[in-house]
Amino acid sequence: MGIFTVPVHLHRTRVFVSASDELPNVQLTLYSNHVDNYHVDGYMILPVPYPSSVRFHYPHTLSSYGDEYHHFMNCVENAFHDVETYRHSSPRRMSESLARYEVQVLETIDDLREFNQYAHILHETTIDQIARIYRQSYWGFLLCKLHEGNFIYEPLCYSHQIPREHMFIPSLSYRPRRISDVHIPDHFDYNDHKYYINGTLIEDYIPNMYEITNRMIPSIPWDILPRGFAQCLRRFMHHRKHGLLHNRDEFYPINYLLYNHYKSNRRYSIERFDLY
Prior knowledge:
- By secondary structure, the protein is of the alpha+beta class.
- It has helices at 68-80, 83-87, 109-119, 124-133, 260-263; strands at residues 2-4, 9-19, 26-37, 43-49, 55-56, 97-99, 102-106, 139-145, 149-153, 156-161, 166-169, 173-174, 187-197, 210-213, 236-246, 250-253.
- The strands form 3 sheets. Strands 2, 3, 5, 6, 9, 10, 13, 14 and 15 form a 9-stranded mixed sheet that branches. The chain has a 5-stranded mixed sheet with strand order 7-8-4-1-12. A two-stranded antiparallel sheet has the order 11-16.
């Protein structure tokens, strides 16, 4: 997942998403992937709604074994994955290193165009296609600088305002194989794991395997997360997206029925919006 500006080998991506506890109008995202990149000026671009509301959350500890968020994601993965899933996953090898994204927020597509004029990271045709996909005014972008080499990236932890009562997972993917690859493909070969809290399951949103639990898994160190997230867990879902699938971002409606203080004064309905 993610819009890459250079050819890379993407082993897999892990994403954790939670709506805020008290007033679920903000979401927390932990985003991490394992990337082979052998280009000096490589970037990954993640779309983000309401970029002016973006706040980054940094871990308290960092060591050679990874930071707290890396530990949290490993615990989530361990809690959900069975032996068959691990057989198809990418375990860390001794030759792989941990790295952190260098990130800046671009608040509009015009900011992305301006940066591109300076750095020449994408073809103008690709920029135009991105502009058509994210045509609403509330879309911005996280520009993540890649390190040169084979790295497992520490989770990027950030929060932002939720678009129209839907949690957002940046899933649109683009990886150019050569200079002439300027079009974002309609389909993409995914190998991703997504974990999200208090969302609503809609079949056409989730074309692949999923798991659901309604209990607080004690082996997961929930207190690592920033205050105000994942403390009123009612439903915990895992979605493995694997294979050649339609290339698009994913939106999961918040299940307001799972929030006790919303049950009496909120009418809940499942709707599908044109969020692009």
